[in-house]
Amino acid sequence: MSVLLPRRLTADPGDTAGGKPDVRLVTWFFPAWYAVFGVIICVLTRVTPPPRPDVATEGKVAFFAEHHTTIQFGFMVLLILLGGAAVTNGLVAYHMMRMSVGKVFAYGYIGGMGVGALPGFLLVAVCFLTATFRADRDPELVGMLYDLGMLSYNGSLGCFSAAYLVFAIAILYDKNEIFPKWFAYVCIWQIVTEVIATQMYVFYSGPFAWNGSVAFWWAVLIFTFWLGALILLLRRAAAREPVDSPPLD
Which residue from 67, 145, 176, 202 has the least number of CB within 10 angstroms? Predict the structure, then answer.
């Protein structure tokens, strides 16, 4: 299988391309799922913005006591809806398979994002739900679950970096112009934020801590721009796909 096998799967500018109904449906599901996800992590579970890393054990226990109910409800809903991430990632992979590059890039993206969901989202849910499950648990264990959940959720994950990298390379090599070339460089900035996030495992406070201006808030700004642009570009890619285009192999 050629990694860079040329294939023309997009319509010529003169063709009428309204998009396939099923792909357009998933394209609308994409922002809806992320909107619900944002409410869960920001409003209910309180992991974004993250609680402070430089608090004593008493402060960690107090955090779970204060947000006990919303943490349990939010993460239970998230565990039910987490499968939607597979659909959103599948939509990106679908359009990557329409590129002139080989399918290995789409498989790499799916693999990286799928593996990253385990430590990035599932582990923090398990840690926080375990911490709130028994109110009489040893405070030191609660503190450990607090740290483990936050470090797994906010810390650098090479699997996400790999997904962004193959996405960027595929866009740069693609001749079908499914995504604009500038978006590849936004993906590269995502990798930069993952590299910076490695410092979260070292610093308790300051700009490189897990709630710091550089390690966290700069990454949030980049991710927000990346996600917003991706939503618009996926809608454009779906609209430009000919309705009668053959199914992907």
Answer: 202
